[in-house]
Specification:
The chain is of the alpha+beta class and 480 residues long. It is 57% helix and 18% strand. The N terminus is likely disordered.
């Protein structure tokens, strides 16, 4: 799979780059730490050299004003006391330094403070270091914990030598300890980063493979849905499932439209063929009515027959309009008259079954829509006749109208046994019917009419109650 191979390669390159970056960071940190140690030692060396030079200069100036310049002629205690006063005076400006002089293999005049507190006596290693010929530079203590930095300034006039010393505690050990912890942390970070990359790689590889297999299956089976999970891949799978559902619904809608278009053509042809004999029938009935009037006979049955012929002609007109989309005559109007006419036409069949139709029209005056009243009347009549067939005897059918949001809703509710989920899913399909003598056209045509008006026909059903709801865009006062 090219996508997986490309993804694996990209993750490998990213992992190598991450590890290389961490290694480079470790090297840079190490160099910084080592450089910091060297800088501290260099600064201490410079400080000691300056202090030793100052001690030597002050000693020369003092000797220049003394008549007895021979210091070695004085007693040892006097020598030490005299030089210690000089050292203490000079080192006041150098905190943390010790200083003094070396004369004839002896250390004299040692003094020094740190934070105003006199420094402890020199250790054996410090004394040995100062008395050695290489008394300049840095050296470790015996235990290796500290670094000793010293500088000596020989006196040009004699054997005396000024010195200054600074102890750098724990520098030699502290820096490697910090470096060890830091490098260990970096190594752990690199390991965790590599593990995270490996985990991401495996997760993405498995996820992409699942998506690829799911898409291949979707090509042949639109009812299949990809397994979803957490994370971005789960969100992507959900999006693909949603797209598949939309595609499935769209294909069903297209098939429904194709069937309705075919039905419209058939209905138009049939209605046209029926209209001609129907017109002949009406002319014949009108002729019989005129003859009956001349003979003063009863014409009411003939007038009733003519009325039924006219009603059939109206139905044919609506069927022809259904077969020719856009042929309806819409106008902004109240929907109450269409509801009352539909109830009036369905009331006879309801009465024969002892079913009462209850109309809740208290909000009817506020409900207006731009519709073809005859088509809406046809939809409502079809819903009422279905409700009568589904209703048990001595029950009630409720018809109600109301404004909701920007729509007008008309409900036709019966007290029948309701529909199961299998029937609900197919109830609006063309040619689907649960009646022995049904054609499966009524609800499909009714919903198509509602949708042509910019609305819809929906269903809510449960045991003991089924509601068909016609939704139409409401006409507001602003549109007048």
């Amino acid at each position: 799979m090219p996508a997986v191979n490309t993804l694996r390669g990209q993750l490998a390159v990213t992992g190598v780059a991450a590890i290389s970056l961490l290694a480079l960071t470790a090297i840079l940190v190490r160099d910084v730490l080592v450089g910091a140690e060297q800088r501290i030692v260099a600064e201490a060396e410079q400080q000691c050299a300056t202090a030793a030079a100052e001690l030597a200069r002050q000693y020369r100036e003092r000797m220049a004003f003394r008549e007895d310049a021979d210091l070695e002629a004085l007693p040892l205690e006097a020598q030490d006391l005299s030089l210690k006063a000089l050292t203490a005076t000079v080192l006041r400006s150098y905190d943390g330094l010790q200083g003094g002089f070396v004369l004839s293999g002896r250390i004299l005049g040692k003094a020094g403070t740190s934070g105003g507190i006199e420094l402890p006596p020199l250790s054996a290693s410090e004394t040995s270091f100062l008395l050695s010929p290489q008394g300049n530079g840095a050296n470790r203590t015996d235990d290796g914990a500290d670094i000793l930095v010293s500088a000596a300034a020989p006196d040009d006039a004699g054997p005396i030598r000024a010195w200054a010393l600074k102890r750098l505690p724990n520098v030699n050990n502290a820096v490697p300890s910090q470096r060890t912890w830091l490098l260990g942390g970096l190594a752990l970070s690199a390991l965790l980063g590599f593990g995270a990359l490996l985990s991401i790689s495996l997760h993405l590889r498995g996820g992409v493979e699942n998506l690829h297999q799911g898409l291949e299956r979707l090509e042949s089976d639109l009812s299949y849905r990809l397994p979803t999970g957490s994370g971005d891949l789960g969100t992507l799978a959900e999006a693909i499932n949603k797209m598949a559902s939309s595609r499935d619904a769209l294909e069903q809608h297209v098939r429904q439209q194709e069937r309705l278009a075919a039905l419209g053509r058939v209905v138009g042809g049939v209605a046209h063929e029926i209209r001609n004999p129907l017109n002949s029938l009406r002319l014949t009935l009108e002729l019989l009515a005129r003859r009956a009037r001349r003979q003063e006979g009863e014409t009411e049955p003939i007038d009733a027959a003519v009325s039924e012929v006219d009603r059939l002609d109206g139905i044919l007109t609506r069927l022809l309009a259904f077969g020719r989309p856009g042929a309806d005559e819409r106008a902004r109007q109240k929907l109450e008259p269409a509801i009352r006419r539909a109830v009036g036409m369905g009331e006879e069949r309801a009465t024969r079954k002892n079913v009462r139709i209850n109309m809740d029209l208290k909000n009817a005056n506020e409900c207006e829509a731009e519709v073809d009243a005859s088509q809406i009347e046809q939809v409502l009549l079809n819903l009422l006749l279905n409700a009568v067939e589904a209703s048990p005897e001595d029950s009630v059918i409720d018809v109600a109208i109301r404004n909701k949001a920007q729509n007008v809703e008309i409900d036709v509710a019966d007290r029948g046994s309701g529909m199961d989920s299998a029937v609900r899913e197919k109830i609006f399909d063309l040619y689907f019917t649960t009646k022995d003598t049904g054609s499966g056209l009524g609800l499909a045509v009714s919903r198509e009419i509602a949708r042509r008006h910019g609305g819809d026909l929906s269903l809510e059903s449960e045991p003991g109650r089924t509601v068909f709801r016609v939704t139409l865009p409401a006409s507001t006062k602003e549109h007048s």
